[in-house]
Design brief:
Layout (H helix, E strand, L loop, with lengths): L30 E4 L4 E2 L2 E7 L5 H13 L2 E8 L11 E6 L3 H9 L13 E6 L6 E6 L2 H12 L6 E2 L2 E5 L5 E6 L8 H13 L4 E4 L17 H16 L3 E6 L10 H16 L4 E5 L11 H7 L4 H20 L9 E3 L10 H9 L5 E4 L11 H11 L3 E5 L29 E6 L9 H12 L6 H13 L3 H13 L3 E2 L5 E3 L3 H15 L3 H25 L3 H32 L3 H18 L22 H7 L6
Parallel strand pairs: 3-4, 3-5, 5-7, 10-11, 10-17, 11-12, 12-13, 13-14, 14-15, 15-16, 16-17
Antiparallel strand pairs: 1-9, 2-8, 6-7, 6-9, 18-19
Helix pairs in contact: 1-3, 4-5, 8-9, 11-12, 12-13, 13-15, 14-15, 15-16, 16-17
């Protein structure tokens, strides 16, 4: 896996495939080969399905075929398919069904003998009689994920011919809404769940710290209107093959020894089960074990201490697992966020969890720090040993709710997580930003990595995320990548940068400085100006080319800031050009214009109440501002 901090120069998005070129599919498939010339899709097409094909999967396949050129898609039972000369036939169902297996072979694909859960085989092949597209999933999830891959095979008015065998390397993939600050809106969550389906992420954990009914007022039932919204979210998750996990965070006030608190906890979980949730998490993070919340706990467990807290928590969790999880149909393994979540040191707390917590409970871990600069296979192996089970990573990227992220969107690629982590962890969830749609850039990478960490390439997926947001419009993709570069910095919880600021702009400015120092003044200006113009045009291109309205709401202040900073960059280049041309008065005027623009940019702040913490918007700080400050002193 590449973990380089230096991205390649942005490449134009492809509008079609050259002969023999494989399509870009994200997440990266385990095995994909070409299967001849592209398939022509036209006229009336039969789509034969088995009972395991979900309505969303069937609808997605139909829409993909129509996008590729089909005039009409007739959905029929797989046993009623009748091949017609010159007409494309499409089959979807579970591997092992005779008609599915036959279609895979006819399309030049493989019939996997032992396909893991959520896996699929997909084959498409052109032929004189119209050709075949075959989808075989290990289960309904696999069929749906194959449909998401089929969506990415459309090139113009045709489908790429491929043979794919694919499956996830990690069981759990997705996000945890676990940040501090204003929780996402209902509309943002609905949009996120649909997005997770697109990128084959199968898990969303509902755990917003500032939802009072999740944490501070956890005993109280959700009001009817909020409960109805949670029910809609559960159904949206089901429709997009995502596991909705309801988390409760009672540690701020729970009395572990009080049967009434246990009943309140179980009642809250039951209410969510009744809404359709089948996955549950108990979060006991960001609390103290220096004091109990009630005298009864001291009577039951002794003086407050890490070991005593561990014992109280184990007793609670094992009861919830036994009396709630085990007693209800269709539930998934319970998840748990421990109080000591960010290291691998042996402690009395961890020892009790390791030795006494039911082995089926999944323990979440953030790495070797709250916001780790990297996560290695060896570190995850240590965590598995100390917790007594493979850990479930809660990755605090791209979350921006701590001081060092003030004014920032964290939009660099998901990177510095080591290939091979799937051998030590049960999954990875990213903790996103207050800005839901802006988080899609990192979440796109997290989904790709957790599906196939050994085939993951950070900057390849970063560009794919830009393509996704732009609808594969080349100019918009370039504008997005230039903007992402200015929001590339990622700090640890203590302020050290584990992703650098604006590496692409920094590279270009270094080349400018070298050319200028060598006396190649005009060449330096001519080379840098197109990128400056790209930055200046980015707000308009992004506004016109990105269809996601939530994304525009998220990045509004940053687009305002970018417009000012990029105008200052152009004004500065104009000033240097005037100086090269011998017009010092014009140069000084343009430098003064740039100074005014920089001052105005310093007044652009994040949306009040939307971001925690609030502050002045940052834009390539440490690179762009340094250049603009130094440039007026440059002389030919």
């Amino acid at each position: 896996m590449s973990t380089s901090a230096d991205p390649p120069a942005p490449a134009p998005a492809s509008g079609g495939l050259a002969e023999g070129e494989l399509p870009r599919v994200v997440p990266t498939p385990q095995h994909m080969v070409g299967n001849g010339p592209a398939l022509t899709v036209r006229g009336r097409i039969q789509l034969g399905v088995t009972a395991e094909v979900s309505d969303p999967a069937r609808e997605l396949v139909g829409s993909v075929l129509e996008e590729a050129g089909a005039g009409r898609v007739d959905v029929v039972d797989i046993d009623d398919v009748r091949r017609r000369p010159g007409q494309l036939t499409v089959i979807a169902g579970t591997v092992g069904h005779p008609a599915v297996d036959d279609a895979l072979r006819a399309a030049g694909g493989e019939v996997p003998a032992d396909l893991p859960a959520e896996g699929y085989a997909l084959a498409s092949k052109a032929a004189r009689d119209g050709g075949v597209v075959a989808i075989g999933g290990a289960d309904p999830d696999g069929i749906y994920y194959a449909a998401q891959t089929l969506r990415q095979l459309v090139a113009g008015r045709a489908l790429a011919a491929v043979s794919i065998t694919d499956f996830p390397l990690m069981q759990l993939r997705g996000s945890i809404e676990g940040f501090y600050g204003q929780p996402w809106s209902h509309e943002e969550r609905l949009d996120q769940l649909a997005f997770y389906g697109d990128v084959k992420a199968n898990t969303y954990v509902y755990a917003p710290k500032d939802d009072p009914y999740h944490r501070d007022q956890w005993r109280e039932p959700y009001p009817a209107d909020l409960e109805a919204q949670l029910g809609e979210l559960v159904q949206q998750a089901i429709d997009h093959h995502v596991r909705f996990t309801f988390a409760m965070s009672p540690g701020v006030s729970i009395c572990y020894s009080d049967p009434g608190d246990l009943d309140a906890l179980l009642d809250k979980l039951q209410a969510m089960y009744d809404l359709g949730a089948r996955s549950f998490s108990i979060a006991l993070d960001d609390i103290t074990y220096d004091e109990w919340n009630c005298p009864g706990d001291e009577d039951a467990y002794g003086e407050p201490s890490p070991g005593a807290a561990g014992q109280a928590q184990v007793d609670l969790l094992n009861v919830v697992k036994r009396d709630f999880i085990d007693g209800r149909e269709g539930t998934h393994p319970m998840q748990f966020v421990p109080t000591e979540y960010d290291n691998v040191a042996e402690t009395p707390y961890k020892r009790i969890i390791r030795e006494q917590l039911d082995e089926s409970v999944e323990v979440m871990w953030t790495g070797t720090d709250v916001v780790p600069p990297s996560i290695s296979v060896d570190e995850a192996a240590e965590a598995a040993e100390v917790w007594g089970r493979p850990v479930f990573i809660w990755d605090n990227y791209p979350v921006n709710d701590y001081w060092w992220t003030t004014g920032r969107l964290l939009m660099g690629p998901y990177s510095k997580r080591e290939a091979g982590l799937h051998t030590q962890v049960s999954g990875i969830l990213l903790n996103p930003m207050n800005q839901a749609s802006a988080s899609k850039v990192a979440l796109f990478g997290g989904a790709d990595f957790s599906w196939n960490d050994v085939g993951y390439e950070p900057y390849r997926t970063w560009e794919a995320a830009a393509d996704y947001l732009s609808g594969d419009d080349t100019r918009t993709t370039q504008a997005l990548l230039a903007f992402f570069d200015l929001q590339h910095l990622a700090p640890t919880f203590w302020g050290d940068a584990w992703l650098p600021v604006a590496p692409e702009l920094d590279r270009r400015l270094e080349r400018f400085d070298a050319s200028w120092a060598a006396g190649e003044h005009q060449a330096a200006l001519d080379e840098l100006r197109p990128y400056a113009e790209l930055l200046a045009g980015a707000p308009e291109l992004i506004a016109a080319g990105v269809a996601d309205p939530i994304f525009h709401e998220d990045i509004g202040p940053w687009m305002e800031s970018l417009a000012l900073w990029s105008a200052a960059l152009l004004a500065t280049l104009d000033g240097l050009q005037a100086r090269v041309d011998g017009d010092e008065d014009a140069a000084n005027q343009r430098f003064a214009d740039a100074a005014e623009l920089i001052e105005a940019a310093g007044e652009v702040e994040t949306v009040p109440g939307k971001t925690r913490p609030e502050g002045v918007v940052k834009m390539g700080d440490g690179v762009l501002d340094v250049f603009l400050t130094a440039a007026p002193g440059l002389r030919p």
